[in-house]
Each structure stands twice: as structure tokens, then as C-alpha cells.
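Weekly modeling sync, notes
Attendees: S.R. (lead), two postdocs, one rotation student

Agenda item 3: backlog of single-chain predictions. S.R. asked that every request posted to the team notebook include the full sequence so nobody has to chase files. The rotation student volunteered to paste the first one in as an example of the format we agreed on. Action items at the bottom.

Example entry:
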Amino acid sequence: MESVHRIRILLVDDEPHILQFLELGLRNEGFEVRSAPDGEQAVIVASNFEPHVVVLDVMMPGMDGLEVCRRLKEEGKDVAVIMLTAKDEIDDRVKGLTIGADDYMVKPFSFEELLARIQARLRNQFPSLLGEIRLGSFTIDDRKKEIAYQGEALELSPTEYKLLKLLVTKHGSVLSKSNILNIVWDYDFGGEDNIVEVYIRSLREKLGDKEHRVIRTLRGAGYRVDLL
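Predicted structure, as returned to the notebook:
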């Protein structure tokens, strides 16, 4: 069965391009992500979604991020709040930390920095979530960078680990070669896309997947993992 320990992240920002960029990046990292374009919707989504981490912009029309943070913390929700502030708004950072924000970042920021901040909050507040994730016959231990299949640890290179983790966490979804290249090999990969086929073949050998029942090929579309 799929692990119940899915890490949930709520993104709150009134700039659509920021939400879209962060949603894509965090989903590719395996997080379950929801977004809200303003404070009022953020409170509603948080009540139903119960996020572990909220990435929250301070400056929004209507209910601002400070009020959203205050409400979340007053309701006693077990949630880590990372505030996003403008470069010169020191008062907002002080106010945010005073009302319970757990961290803050100054715009503009890199995705890698945000990811590091999220992981730091998870280690601090939700350490149990960073253990093993069980999906069907697979067990993923991101701390050890190890994947087991049917109880047996697989000997994987770093790239094989990233590829198999992607396929397993996105199980049931078809991933095209271009999507896989963008995520596993990064967007600046300049080689041939047949490198994906080479790695898929290697993974199938290590999984004993001679009949391609675990990693399926959908001709002209891409690859899909079906959990057994």
C-alpha cells in the first residue's frame, strides 16, 4: 500500500508565475502540493488539506500573510510556516517570527534554497516523515538514497536512483523521455534522449523485469510504473 506519510505543502502567493514554478518543482521532488492565490483561500485550503509546511507570501491584497500565519498558529495546527518577504521589509520578518513563523526567505530566492529550508523544517518538526516511503513493492529511503524492491535493496547508481524514484513516486502516470530528461538530467542536458532507454534497460535488469510489467513502455508516449 502507498505510504500515508506523504509530505503536504501549501503555497500561498498572489503571483501566478511563482505558484506555477514552485508547484512544478516541489511536485517533481515528490511532495503533495496545493496552492492558494490569497489569504482567504489559504485559510480554507489549509483547513481541508492540513499541510505540514506552508510557504507564505507576506504582501498580498486582502488578508496578508501575517494574518494567515497568526490564524494557523492560533488554531494550534502542527505546521511549519516559511514566510516570503521583500528585501527591505525587515519589520515584516520580525512580526512574522513574533506571531509564530518558523522561518523566512527574502525574494527573489532560488528553488534550491527553498527546498533546503523546507527540508530543514521537516527535519526539525516532522522527523518521522523523512523515513522510509513504501509504495507497492518498493521502499524508498531518501536518507540512504536507497530503494528496495520486494524487500531486496537494489544496487543503483545516483542517476538510476533518481530515475527509479521519479518513476515510482509518479506511479500510474506516463512520463515522456523529455520530462525524464528535464527532471533527472536537468534542463541543460545536451546529450541524446536515448540515454533514457539505456537507463530504463538497466533498471529492468536489476528489477528482474524481463516482461516489462513493472516499468511499462507506452509507445510514442513514454514510461509508466505500475505498482504490484
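Discussion: group reviewed the output briefly. The CA atoms of residues 8 and 32 lie 5 Å apart.
Action items: rotation student to repeat for the remaining queue; S.R. to check formatting next week.
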